[in-house]
Each structure stands twice: as C-alpha cells, then as structure tokens.
Amino acid sequence: SECVGAMVARRDKRFDAAVREAAAARLEQPGHPLPHLILALVHQDRSAFGEGEREALEAIKLEPELAYAHTMMGMARHALGRFDEADEAYQKAATLDPSDLRPLLGLAEMKVQRRDFSGAVKGYLKIIELNPGMLPARQALASLYFSLGDYGACISEGLEILKSDPDSVPALGLLSRASILNGDYPGATTFLQRLRGAQPDLSSATAYQLGLCLLAQNKREEALRELRAADASDPLVQVAIAVAEQSLGRLDASAHLYEQALSGGAGELNPRIRFHRATLQLARRQWVEAARELAQAEGFFVNLRADLFDLPRLYQTVPSESLVLTSLGALYLSEGFLDAGAAVCDGALSGAGASNVLALLMHSSVLARKGQFDEAGGKLRRILELAPRYAPAYFALGEIALSRNDLTTAVAAYEKSATLDPQHLPTWTRLAFGYGKQQAGSKREAALRNWLRLAPDSPVPYNELANHLADSGGDFDEALSLATHALQEAPGQGAVLDSLGWIHYRRSEHSKAIERFQQALKAQMNPELRAEVMQHLGLAYLALGDKASALTQFDAAVATAPESLAAQNSRKLIGQHRPER
C-alpha cells in the first residue's frame, strides 16, 4: 500500500510525500527492490541523480537480474555525464530484457551527446523498427534530423507522430519550423494553425509565426491581422507589424511603429530597426536621414558600410516597391525565411531597382547561406560595378573563395579589401592565415603587424607574430617579448606556453624550452595542439641527448592525434631515432 501511495504521490508531483511513502515501504519490506526503484524515480524527477543512482544500486543488490534497475542506473549515470558507465548499465538492461526499449533510447541519446549523429540515427531507427508506436524515439529522431538540417526527414518523422498523436505540440512545433526552413510556407501555415488549436497558450508566438508565413505568401492583409493578434508589447512583433504596414504603403503608421519599438528598449534589435527605417527614408528620398540610419545599422548586417555608397545617385530612381521588398527581405533573413528572403531580394532588383545595393548585399548573403556561391559572387561583383571602392564586397568575395578552398582567389580579394579599407581587422586576420598557407613570409609578417595594430589588447596577434618570428628565423628577442606579453594577457594558456617553449628551443635554451612545454601540457587544449606540444617537447629532449624521453613524447603525439601534422612529423622522428629491433 505504501508503494501504491508513493506512486500516486509521484504522479501528482508531491515528491516529499512520495519519498516518505517509499521509505516506509522500504522499512516494511527491506528485501524488496520496488521501494528502491520508486525512490530512484522520484530522485530522477527532482534531478537528484546521485541519490537516484544509489537507490538503483540498492535495487540491483537485491535483484541483480532486474532489467529496470539497470535502466535506472543507466539514466542516473547518463544524467551525471558518466557516459561509459551509463553505456554499460544500459547494455546490461537491454540484454536482460530485450523487449524494453528504454535502454536503447538512452544509448541513442548518449550518441547524440557524444556527437555520433549517424550512430544515434541508427539507434533511433532500430527502436522504431522494433516498436513503430514508440513516440519518444520518433520525436527524438525528428529533433535530431532538424538539428542536422535534414528538414525533409524531420517532416517525415513529424507526420508519423501526428498519425498517432494528432495534437502533439512538440511534433507540430518541429513541423512548422522545419517547413519554414524548407521553404514550404503553406505547409508551415497549416501546422501553426493546428498548433494554436492544440495549445492555445502559445497563441501569441503562433500568431507571430503565422503572420510571417502569410507575409512570405504575399498575403499582406491577412498577415497583418495575425501579427496584431500577437503580443503588441514585444518589439519583435512591433517591427513585423511595421514592415507589414510598410508593405501596404502605410508609411506613416510604419514609421510610428519603428519609433515605438526603438523607444521601448529593443536592445539588440536596434540596428535592424535602423535598417528598416532607412528603407523608409530612401523611399522618401531623404538621403541624409537614410545615411544616418544606415550608419547605426551596421550591427545588423556584417558587410554594411553605407558611408561608401552614393545614396542619391544609386537610389534616385529606385521605386518604393523595391525598398518595401528590401525591408521584407531584412525581416525574412532575420527570422530564417531564406527562400522568401531570396525571392523578395530578387524582386527588389528587377527593373529600376537594379541599383538597389542594399538588396544586392542581402541577396548575396542569402545565396551564400544556401550554398549558391557563384550566384552570390555575381551579386557582389554587381555591387562593385555600382560602387567600385566598396571594400566589404571584396572581403565577402574572399570569404566565398575561402569556403571553396580557392586560396589564391581569396587572398587576392582580401588584398583589395585591405587596400581600400586598411582599418578592417578581419581582412588582416584572413591575410595572415592565407599568407601562412602560401608560405609568403614577409607578407604574413606585415599582415600580423597590422592585426596587432588593430587589436593591441588581444593576446592572439602577439602570440601569432611571436610564432612567425621564431619559425622564420627572425628577431628571437622580439619574439620572446611578444610571447611574454601574450602570456601576461592569457595566463596559463597552452598555445602561448607552447610558443614560449618553441622560442626558447630556437634560441638553443633547451632546458627552459622543456619547462615551458611541460607547463603547456597541463593546460586544456585540443588533441591536435597537444600532439604538437608533445612533438616540440620531444625535440627539446632530443637536443639535450635524452633520446628515451624524446621517443616517449613522439609516441604520445602519434597516439593523441594520429592524423595531425605533429603525428606525421613524430613518426618520421621515431623512424630516425628508434633503434632497429
């Protein structure tokens, strides 16, 4: 009776009462595992995973072959992040009771956390094959497909869930988001309408998304009605209503709403509101006001440098509808409606809108995000025809080339960007990387010094320049000074300690080098860098004649990151210095 009372109390979320009842049952029947399992469940509910693990262990002591006790053990250890132990418990539970799929679900969830996504997909599919009606597995699989960007597969799984549970809020939410990202706005509209019926307390958020979907289908009046049903105090909603009003030609109402959103403390939304307001000013041919708004909108759009545009020349003949579509495009891009964003940008550039450089910028960004790099590059080159000194276009062309591993084209574009805008920090960081790959030593040093000039408070350029000077046989004293400064800014950082060790090694100060490399290995770092430090430490030992210690470090480098450059170099050194057996 105490166990029944404990389960009822747990169902009602009266956890203290559940613990009392289960504890009483444990005293009544000290040899029975059920009270321990109930306590384990209650502790799980309260996120007291250590206590849950202890109760599961007590149940296993009483009945070692009880599968569910091992499942509870796995769940507790899983929540505590002890994945290897959880894996062992889940595997034991699955062996004891192959009909219980909860251990398999736990194993699949751990694969997600370990970023073994293909293994997780296989695990969820196996569960669904064994029990097609196990909705938690389908929901988890649909969520995983969504996070992997496979929206079609996500939609397929979501629809399967709806066959069993037509009002599943998680499934309808996933289906609506996946449909939006898949460009199926009518489908998203249907799912959002069903979601509103299934969970009315989501009505404001649902109305907002519905309004955007209707806007994306060019149903502007319907969209406005839905947006007005959302939370009118939310600046995000105010901006969307303002864009809808602007799209219907009601510019004064739109301007008032933008002002309202700004005065309401929109925070991070401010640069985007400025961009929308600039499209209003451009439509009214108010050039000074538009330039002022765009100057405050640069936080919204990464390549926006409106001061480099001759707005009167470029926008004198651009029609209002082109600017409406530009404003819509900004809204769609911000909310993940990429297909709608691409469509309106394309429309904004038709006919007399061909010189709408803001639409060109957005269109190039959308196309690049969709992987259409040739088309994105074409839009950027069109900007350069209209504004030849627009350095951000060259930088963006460099980014596209770099993403395609075309280093020569990327470096050439970055060089043009640096010539036109020598104050742009990201250009110099990219050039430092590119010149390093091209082994253009003097150019790399110049790029690193410009990086340091623009970011004097960051330890990274100090460390990079120190490494370069050490590797190129430059001024070792300056290299040591730079790396020492970097360590002051980033105490205990492994990469900087490695740089200091390498500089000492290059100065033939091998004992000091070993000390720094050993310090570096105590720091947190990725396997590739750790392997490089181990190789460097091995070289320092080798320079002092300690071949055994050197070979130990070379072996460790190979084991730590087998595919890394440091591992390749270590294998060569092992071959040179390990005696034949």
Radius of gyration: 31 Å
Q: What's the shape?
A: flat
N-to-C CA distance: 73 Å
Helix content: over 70%
The percent range for strand residues is: under 5%
Task: Quickly give the structural class.
Answer: mainly alpha
Calculate the mean pLDDT score and round it.
Answer: 93
Largest sheet: none
Number of helices: 34
Number of strands: 0
Unreliable spans are none
What would you say about this model in short?
The protein is mostly helical and 581 residues long. It contains 34 helices and no strands. Helix 32 runs antiparallel to helix 33.
Write the layout of secondary structure elements.
Layout: H1 2-11, H2 15-28, H3 34-45, H4 49-62, H5 67-79, H6 83-96, H7 102-113, H8 117-130, H9 135-147, H10 151-164, H11 169-181, H12 185-198, H13 203-216, H14 220-228, H15 235-247, H16 251-263, H17 270-283, H18 287-295, H19 311-315, H20 320-334, H21 338-348, H22 357-369, H23 373-386, H24 391-403, H25 407-420, H26 425-438, H27 441-454, H28 459-471, H29 476-489, H30 494-506, H31 510-521, H32 527-543, H33 547-560, H34 565-577
Helix pairs in contact: 1-2, 1-3, 2-3, 3-4, 3-5, 4-5, 5-6, 5-7, 6-7, 7-8, 8-9, 9-10, 9-11, 10-11, 11-12, 12-13, 13-14, 14-15, 15-16, 15-20, 16-17, 17-18, 17-20, 20-21, 20-22, 21-22, 22-23, 23-24, 24-25, 25-26, 26-27, 27-28, 28-29, 28-30, 29-30, 30-31, 30-32, 31-32, 32-33, 32-34, ...
Structural descriptors:
581 residues, flat, 0% strand
Explain this structure to me?
The structure is a single chain. The chain is mainly alpha-helical and 581 residues long. It has helices at residues 2-11, 15-28, 34-45, 49-62, 67-79, 83-96, 102-113, 117-130, 135-147, 151-164, 169-181, 185-198, 203-216, 220-228, 235-247, 251-263, 270-283, 287-295, 311-315, 320-334, 338-348, 357-369, 373-386, 391-403, 407-420, 425-438, 441-454, 459-471, 476-489, 494-506, 510-521, 527-543, 547-560, 565-577. Helix 1 runs parallel beside helix 3 (34-45) and helix 24 (391-403) packs antiparallel against helix 25. It is flat and about 90 Å long. The mean pLDDT is 93.
